[in-house]
Specification:
469 residues; alpha/beta; ten-stranded mixed β-sheet; six-stranded mixed β-sheet; 21 strands
Length: 469
């Protein structure tokens, strides 16, 4: 499936390349990369279809930003970078081709940046990437390592998804979709888990495992692979590694990093005894909920120990970490009803989120689920139907299309019916507003309400809390 072969490139190492133009500069990743480039002395220009707070900020810090795409925006840069949303008929792309200017995609640029840092880290996995990458970053910052950070969410402690640092560390969230992470040849690679997802591209789990195998094979022999021993697919991919392999587990005492005697406080946040190579270390008290985050914290601690932090520094940084935006993010409360937003959009992620809520001392768990993409809803239909058994009630809103068009053969009302065939607790909602109104009329003090999905379902949080701020 994944026939990509990593090629060493030198667009950023070559001092000639001082001027870079970015098509789609306002995107969350592209805007962060623009900041990194300017921080390292590059002249940066770019364009986006609409003006935003992001494009305004980039202009304020020195980028030359144009709103709207035009061939005139290509003013002889040394390199043009584009996002996957940009097609070959984009006027700026076409002008760069006409002028024979080198063109690379966003992932290639990010791989280029990673290659400039001797201690780069790429965190991969079907679930948990943003949280684990953020926790690693928090540990390194607290330990005075001054890392550069590029993630897909906002770190609460830092209020940013990009952090500019020194010349040694670069911490990166590595997405597998379209084999993007095969551009990232990092000193430390992490595989948190591997499950069936992005099947519109990969087709099946075997192709996903193969792609992850290619990812770990690129870690240099003197580097490190951190892999979860509790996930068989991840272990299979790890067989392709040429470097030292370190395992972590919440189930197997034989793992290099092991969490023993796990317990949870009233908010569902985990506490455990950390064992490293069977040697006990002090307890770890997390500030983020769920058993899955116990596992994520082990990965983060293992990475940071391999990067030179003391165990004590790693534990301290893990304990001070407050999470990221849209990952079991408590948005507020009204009438003693807790409102939480979570980015979960895969069945396993949803189950983990609800399990985290179940660890807390809430009366009833409500979920408001907005399926993300028609392909995912259809391919994982059966799995989604079994994801809400621990909820008191799940309100299912219309599918968020994202990059797709409605094929006409899958609808949220069908998902609600399938959930009801398993747990008899689903209600289809025709709009976000009707879902919010249903909660207002039916939720009771002591309940928790979780908006679930990677689309716009989080707007419901504001609807529920609009009179409390």
């Amino acid at each position: 499936m994944s026939d990509y072969i990593y090629k060493e490139t030198s667009y950023l190492k070559n001092t000639k390349n001082k001027y870079i133009h970015m098509i789609g500069i306002g995107g969350s990743s592209m805007s962060g990369l623009a900041e990194f480039l300017m921080h390292r002395g590059f002249r940066v220009s770019g364009s986006d279809s609409t003006e935003s707070a992001v494009t305004k900020r980039l202009s304020e810090i020195g980028a030359e930003v144009s709103i709207g795409h035009s061939a005139e925006n290509i003013k002889d840069p040394d390199l043009v970078v584009y996002t996957v949303a940009v097609k070959s008929d984009n006027p700026e792309y076409m002008e760069a081709v006409r002028k024979n200017i080198p063109i690379i995609d966003r992932s290639t640029l990010l791989g280029e940046l990673l290659s400039l840092f001797p201690k780069s880290v790429s965190v991969a996995g079907t679930h948990g990437k943003t949280t684990t990458t953020s926790m690693i970053s928090n540990i390194l910052i607290d330990a005075g390592k001054n890392p550069n950070v590029h993630i897909g969410g906002i770190i609460k402690n830092r209020q940013s998804n990009v952090i500019l640092g020194g010349d040694e560390y670069f911490i990166n969230e590595a997405c597998e979709y379209y084999n993007s992470f095969l551009h990232f040849k990092s000193y430390v690679g992490v595989v948190l888990n591997i499950e069936a997802d992005h099947l519109d591209f990969f087709g099946n789990l075997e192709n996903i495992i193969e792609s992850f195998g290619n990812f770990v094979s690129m870690i240099p022999k003197n580097g490190h692979l951190i892999v979860c021993k509790d996930n068989q697919a991840a272990l299979t991919a790890a067989n392709s590694a040429r470097c030292e392999i370190t395992t972590y587990s919440i189930e197997s005492p034989s793992a290099d990093f092991y969490a023993r005697d796990i317990s949870f406080d009233k908010n569902g946040c985990g506490c455990y005894a950390l064992y490293i190579n069977k040697v006990p270390y002090g307890p770890v008290y997390l500030r983020i909920p769920g058993k899955h985050n116990v596992s994520n914290s082990l990965a983060a601690i293992a990475v940071c120990v391999k990067l030179g932090c003391t165990v004590e520094e790693a534990i301290k940084g893990a304990e001070s970490f407050q999470g990221t935006s849209r990952r079991f993010e408590i948005k507020g409360s009204y009438n003693n009803i807790t409102i939480v937003d979570d980015y979960a959009h895969h069945p396993s992620e949803i189950k983990a989120t609800i399990a985290a809520a179940k660890k807390g001392s809430y009366s009833r768990i409500w979920a408001i689920f907005q399926p993300h993409t028609y392909t995912r809803a259809k391919k994982l239909f059966t799995e989604f139907s079994k994801s809400f058994e621990d909820c008191y009630k799940v309100l299912v809103t219309d599918i968020y299309a994202a990059r797709e068009k409605d094929p006409g053969d899958i609808h949220s009302s069908q998902l609600a019916e399938a959930i009801n065939s398993v747990s008899q607790n689903a209600v289809y909602m025709q709009s976000l507003e009707s879902a919010a109104q249903y909660i207002k009329e039916n939720a009771q003090p002591g309940d928790i309400v979780i908006t679930v999905g990677a689309g716009t379902v989080n707007k419901i949080c504001d609807m529920l809390l609009e009179n409390t701020k």
